[in-house]
Design goal:
NUDIX_hydrolase-like_dom_sf (chains A, B); 4-stranded mixed β-sheet; Nudix_hydrolase_domain (chains A, B); NUDIX_hydrolase_CS (chains A, B); 16% helix; Nucleoside Triphosphate Pyrophosphohydrolase; alpha+beta; homodimer; 3 helices; 3-stranded antiparallel β-sheet
């Protein structure tokens, strides 16, 4: 059962910078309660996070410096889509830039929100299989270290101090459910 | 093996609003490459997301309107910590406000980043067990619908159109690994 969404009475742009727009939204809930909520809208064309499989159980992770938390992060390769790029094209390009592989088979498994209460941002989770070596030059300041991990050993990955990103952990478990045949996304 | 983090040459506050601070950080990587990165710092005292277990296999989810993505979201209860509140205290308070239960047993399973490249935000994942009915009045505009789900059936949850939040999906799988005895967080 899906609940009836509140009525949107008004929207106001309250702040705009190069990367973000902050909006105020006046809502009326189905019980008559009114609230003004704020949310951040990201600019750009969306994001992709890839689950690149070297074989049926080996996923390729990257170790990359993450400025937001000021430490190296071990997780799935990801990036932002360029203008006029499909999700599959963006995923394939980012893989070539970050791990030095293209993928002959790309499959969208899910679309994840980041912080659904406060942000509009969405990230497509793309399973990448049938990999072949091909490198594209990205804008990375240093070559990313590629770290193979076993999907059957995700519980040991959780112990790594450099693993923190919720989206990346979610995407790995979603891929594992998919590859085990327990989950098929609706078309 | 942990990589040596880049040297931070300078930090500048470039934007400040009620909710966020945007910073520029000048970095020098170990290979001598320099970059200026931008990140958002959230204000406040951090966030918690709870995995409330009614019994060994039943987790209590909430259906709540998410203004960021303009739709109802089905996921774990969560909230922001108040000043002078421990993680466990904040988790217990949010549970009483959102699902009408307190918890006699609270256990921090992990701390998740949101978007580690661009944001400083971190969320504690708290397993809540030995629940008892107790309601605190929160600031919710409508009573949240509580939806029990089986941890053993997480693959079916992924099919729900109202399930999108990466952090929530990650926290559920982490809790399942913990409860199955495959994962023990380091103290």
């Amino acid at each position: 059962m899906r609940k009836k969404s509140p009525t949107i009475l008004a929207r106001r742009l309250v702040e705009q910078s190069r990367f973000l727009k902050a909006e105020q939204i006046d809502l009326e809930f189905s019980n008559g309660e009114r609230r003004t909520h704020e949310r951040l809208r990201t600019t750009g064309f969306g994001a992709v996070i890839m689950v690149p499989m070297l074989d049926e159980d080996t996923v390729l992770l990257v170790r990359e410096y993450a400025t937001g938390i000021e430490s190296y992060e071990l997780g799935l390769p990801k990036g932002r889509l360029d203008r006029d790029e499909t999700v599959a094209q963006g995923a394939d390009r980012e893989l070539k830039e970050e791990i030095g592989y293209g993928a002959r088979e790309l499959h969208i498994l899910a679309t994840l929100s980041l912080s659904p209460t406060y942000m509009s941002a969405m990230t497509h989770v793309v399973l990448a299989r049938d990999l072949y070596p091909e490198r594209l030059q990205g804008d990375e300041p240093e070559e990313l270290e590629v770290v193979p991990w076993k999907l059957s050993e995700l519980h040991t990955l959780l112990l790594e101090p450099e693993v923190s990103e919720g989206r990346s952990i979610a995407a790995l478990f979603i891929a594992r459910e998919f590859l085990a045949g327990r989950y098929r996304p609706s078309a």
